[in-house]
Fold each of these.
Amino acid sequence: MALTLAEAAKLSRDMVLAGVMESIIKESPMLETLPFIDVVGNAFVYNRLAAEPGVAFQAVGDTWTESTPTYTKVTQALTILGGDADVDNYIQLTRSDVQDQEAVVIQQKAKALARKWEDTFINGDTAVDADSFDGLDKLIADGPAGQTVSMGTNGGTLTLARLDELIDAVKTRNIVISMSRRSRRTLQNLVRTSGAILESRPGSFLEWVQLYNGVPLFINDYISDAQTVGTSSDCSTVYCFSVGEQDQGVVGLTAPGGPVVEKVGQLETKDATRWRVKWYSAIAWLSELSAGRLIGVRA
């Protein structure tokens, strides 16, 4: 059963770990929504639907033709993301009267982990970094051609019609949209010009999540506005995808327990205590029709 990190944090009895998970979720809005599957072992193996079974109307006495779906077996290994943080013992002892220095250092390391994960979620490419995982952009680019919608040979300004076309390319439910801040400004202007506004709903941490036609809209600061499409080098990409197992969408993969905080201990070469924040994780795209991208979005 897949759980979001927010739900998993509620089950943790370790206050340090629960605090780290909360910091990660606050730093990355996507991690508040994306469900995670616990993977026992070093890889997640699943069958992705390649072709649906066929059916047909039959006349009385007809010979029925058997037809079954076909699948493609996909294996996604868990990757290791993390880093060490040293807390000076002198500073911890003498400067923690207002704020616990150890807690601050661990929290900042957790935020850095969240930012790196959100970057990889979109831009990950194992051809560039073999130790990472392929992100949404590469997965969709390598998938069916119909899951990529274009603003034109050399890109073009975002239109509501093209955004609707992107949403229609995703054939599953429970969808979200992810885009850059510049693209959101363009979308807001388009919606206002049409005489409407983007609706909003409250998130888990008193933030507001905007909606386009009922679809949650998440900002990802790692979606570049300087991509090259044709002769244009000022392009961005908008993503639409389902989340969760039931809709065969995008899910996170994690070792049981999620992110881990370890106290490595006292260092021999300096008067400090080392902490390690790590996460064995990746993502899986369960159906190639559950995600799409709109490329060539210009300002």
Note: The radius of gyration is 22 Å.
Amino acid sequence: MPYLTAVTFTPDEKETEAIQSALGNLSEIRLLPKLEPRDRAAVLDEADVIVSRSFARAEIDPQEAARLEKTGLVQLIFAGANNVPFDVLPAGVRVASNAGAFAEPLAEHVLCMTLCLAKLILPGHHSLAEGNFAWSVFSKELSGGTCGIIGMGGNGAAIARLMKGVGMRVLGVNRTGGSAIDLDFMGTLADMDMLLKASDVVVLTVPLTRATRNMIGRRELQLMKPDAILINVARGEVVVQEALYHHLKTVPSFSAGIDTWWSEPGDPGGFTLDYPFFDLPNLVGSPHKADRVPAIMPTAVKMAAENVRDFLEGKAIRGEVDRADYIF
């Protein structure tokens, strides 16, 4: 076969079927975890395409990335490209994220977190467990309110559809000012202050880039309504950790739902926090599992493999990222 595709992880049966169905007649497929070091190096030297979950060190290290001189495309299974070592990856290698592949379950998780915070589910549960029937406490109604979404790719569009479904106005901003669906307002990041001031719920679903790191800090949090809800399903470092903790601590009517953290188990220090977020009653957390539903990985692998097929056939590909955005 004219092409060689190296896969940096061991796919399960359904994921293997998805890869073979999309690429089996176009490319030889080699699974790097099954190769001896010498064979692995040889495949990396010759690979036309690398398919990797997130290009994390557990799958491929920077020294290996540096030798991909013949590679035309790195295709990611996950949406984030912040693990790719662009500083050592050869200049000619294109990188495509799998943005939007996990959009539907992620949007459901955002809605769940929003409702949990708006309806004071956890405080009510804990109050009942302590023998207190706090019936007189008011919760927040979403219908008629405004949801602002920062990042209007596939994830943002799916979130917008659900928020519209519960009766919210939806405002969106992203880098280009374009959206795949109609919103009540769609603008660029220059409109972010307006969105923060106007929204009852703010959802972060942007990639972690030079432009979005520390995007939400003390100033931005103070622009938001005192009783607003902030949901982060982007990356932890999009939000300044210290600023969020102190805002939650000093403005108890404000609340936040966090699925993506500043450090996680795969990081060198593991899952750690600089501040005691879980002592706060106005926080709901989940362990980076907004998109984890049983059938999602075969679906995501299928989308990624089809993008590789388009690349090998000389067609336009989706999700290509600009390396300049990721060199911090």
Note: The radius of gyration is 21 Å.
Amino acid sequence: MPVTVIAGNTSVDLAKKLAKRLNADFVCADLRVFPDGESKITIAKKPKKGRVVVVSSTYPPVDSNLIQTLSLVSKAREFSDRVILIVPYVGYARQDREFLPGEIVTLSVIANLLKAAGASRVVVVDIHSKIGLRHFKVPVENVSAVPELAKYFKKLVLRDPLVVSPDFGGASRAEKFAKIYGTDFVVLKKHRDRKTGRVQIITPDLDDIKGRDLVLVDDMISTGSSIVKATEFLKKQKCGRVFVACTHALLINNAEKKMKKAGVFKIVSANTVPGSTSAVDVSGIIAKAI
């Protein structure tokens, strides 16, 4: 069955790589943003009959990119009843439950919209929490970039490396990374104020990190506040170099500069969010899922 890959404006490079792996026809989308903020999206050509794969991340500006994603899915549905939507980075994934009374579970709203637009299946990469998968109303699969990130780091020369998770929520991710890399891991205890967003590291001093190169593993980095706090804490323990491995590097508000100032030596991310740090390609794991 013929396959056509349609690239959203946020994921052109990744979509091209995926189309090549699938031996699929590639269709790009032209985006025009009007002065009032409205988006006009035009696909370059008519997809072939068969399966249509839409690749569109919803990183910031999340709302605009979400509308573009929904529009592409709706257009793809005109040509195929089998529309597979690839959302490498899922915006609003952190709002997957009601943490404080009255909060809206926005991810549930997004999931309803994706189904209404015409997606018959959704593939995401390292969604913030697997709880979020429950909100989708069509078959959904979460694939992980952790193995590819670990393989990348295995090519680097690190001194007695140790994998670190900045919080308990990422413990299984750090454990998986460490197992593939071939080393051990530790988990820091973090406290985040739900109202102010302030982050504190409340882990006691660590004895076995002195002089060791560390790899902080996380699913996403937005403002980098958690990584900054973790790095400052680890540097006080006289560790070696601090590397950061993450799937989604949003790097809002000079986050990269702040992390480097705190002592981070190198940041490596996947190409779910294109940028200067996105050195790891996830088109292979997405192709396998499809």
Note: The CA atoms of residues 206 and 256 lie 26 Å apart.
